[in-house]
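A reminder from the course coordinator: this example appears on the midterm review sheet, so study it carefully.

Given structure:
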């Protein structure tokens, strides 16, 4: 393995730190949790990323999920080229927004009406406001280690970059907002029941990642999602599945289709734009009709339903809708990766934990099962950092934090999976030998 040079990335990072807080436009990108300097990307195609120093990497993040078909997919490029001569933004309704709404409603089983926004954060903030307006209640329940974007209500026991950088309860969130967010350990139905009993008639919504990607990958235990559904139905609480990561990925209809549990509202994100900035929230008609101008709950966006993002997203979602084999392929290749990693751990006499659902998985540097935030936090973060850097040196680009998940694209071939597994073995071996 020859040492990779990174002088261009390094120079860019030095410049960026003078100009941008921490040198990055989203905190997890800064590599703070794993040490070293972030790699600045120049281009990407299929399964590969290329940095400013012309190093090549196999990408296991795929822009945190949306690149299900790999980078710079030709058919998405064509769709974007087709709209560009007409306008980049109208600030008026367009045909593609209607087609997008029809497609989302046909693919995601519980959505009857949908509103486009510009990010996952906007989607979750809006969904909570609508749930509050609809129920006339103030409080929400969220789960420790789940991340729902950077809206104030969610930055309490938050996962992803917030825990990576040690600020799960961010300064700047007022006491009042914090008081209206009740946090509960993931997979603990009894705690949910107790919280609901302790605040009778006060809970507007329970928001959850039905499969968590933001404390590493954590799987809902049998009966947990069903139990939440039951409580919400009984107490007239709006159940919101945040499917920003899982939507259109774990199945055409997301985690709700895969687990057979229907929420009242769903939030969606980056995947709908095929990589362009987009989000959406949708759900039961009676709830969505509370949104302005149909109803009194205000929510708006100058660039919402942007034609370029709609064209890219429609093309990708239509393809997914019409090609079941995409999902079969993603399952098979991800199973191969996870199975191979487990074999590598066995060969090396290591027994770290790997969690997987479909094409999302993560390795935790702990021997204990990881079922919630507390167990995820038992991982050895120093070992994760070493592992990350060994993989990077071998040309594998992973999420730069223990509290994130890997996302597989259809561009990962059998041959690339073998390369990944070789790098995985060597990296684990290097860690073992250094202890
Ligand atoms: C589950 C979940 N919800 C919401 C968000 C926020 O989305 P965005 O970063 O597009 O604002 C993310 C990712 O960042 C996410 O993973
Ligand atoms: N976990 C986050 C979204 O998926 C990571 C991306 C980010 O915050 O930049």
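Designed residues:
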């Amino acid at each position: 393995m020859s040492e990779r040079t990174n002088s261009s990335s390094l120079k860019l990072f030095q410049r960026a730190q003078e100009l941008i807080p921490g040198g990055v436009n989203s905190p997890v990108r800064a590599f703070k949790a794993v040490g070293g300097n972030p790699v600045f990307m120049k281009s990407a195609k299929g399964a590969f990323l290329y940095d400013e120093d012309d190093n090549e990497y196999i990408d296991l993040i795929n822009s945190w999920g949306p690149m299900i078909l790999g980078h710079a997919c030709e058919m998405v490029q064509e769709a974007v080229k087709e709209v560009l001569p007409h306008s980049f933004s109208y600030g008026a309704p367009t045909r593609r927004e209607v087609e997008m709404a029809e497609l989302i409603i046909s693919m995601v089983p519980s959505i009857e009406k949908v509103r486009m926004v510009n990010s996952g954060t906007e989607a979750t903030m809006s969904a909570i406001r609508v749930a509050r307006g609809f129920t006339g209640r103030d409080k929400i329940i969220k789960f420790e280690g789940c991340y729902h974007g950077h809206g104030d209500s969610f930055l309490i026991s938050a996962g992803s970059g917030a825990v990576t950088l040690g600020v799960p309860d961010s300064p700047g969130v007022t006491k009042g907002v914090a008081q209206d967010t009740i946090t509960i350990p993931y997979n603990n139905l009894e705690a949910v029941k107790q919280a609901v009993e302790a605040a009778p008639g006060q809970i507007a919504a329970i928001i959850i990642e039905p499969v968590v990607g933001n404390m590493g990958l954590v799987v809902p235990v049998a009966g947990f999602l069903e139990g939440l559904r039951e409580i919400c139905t009984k107490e007239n609480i709006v159940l919101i599945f945040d499917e920003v990561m899982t939507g259109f990925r774990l199945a055409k209809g997301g985690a709700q289709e895969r687990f057979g549990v229907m929420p009242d509202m769903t939030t969606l994100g980056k995947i709908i734009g095929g990589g362009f900035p987009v989000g959406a929230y949708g759900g039961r008609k009676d709830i969505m009709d509370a949104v302005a101008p149909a109803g009194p709950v205000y929510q708006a966006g100058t660039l919402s339903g942007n034609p370029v993002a709609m064209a890219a997203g429609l093309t990708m979602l239509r393809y997914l809708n019409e090609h079941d084999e995409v999902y079969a392929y993603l399952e098979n290749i991800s199973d191969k990766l996870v199975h191979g990693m487990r074999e590598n751990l066995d060969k090396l006499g290591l027994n770290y934990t790997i969690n997987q659902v479909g094409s999302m998985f993560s390795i935790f540097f702990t021997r204990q099962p990881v079922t919630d935030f507390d167990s995820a936090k038992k991982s050895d973060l120093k070992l994760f950092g070493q592992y990350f850097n060994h993989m990077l040196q071998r040309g594998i680009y992973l999420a730069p934090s223990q509290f994130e998940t890997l996302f597989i694209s259809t561009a990962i071939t059998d041959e690339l999976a073998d390369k990944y597994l070789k790098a995985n073995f060597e990296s684990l071996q290097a860690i073992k030998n250094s202890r």
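The first strand starts at residue 41 and ends at 45. Residues 7-60+324-434 form a domain with the Aspartate Aminotransferase, domain 1 fold (CATH 3.90.1150.10).
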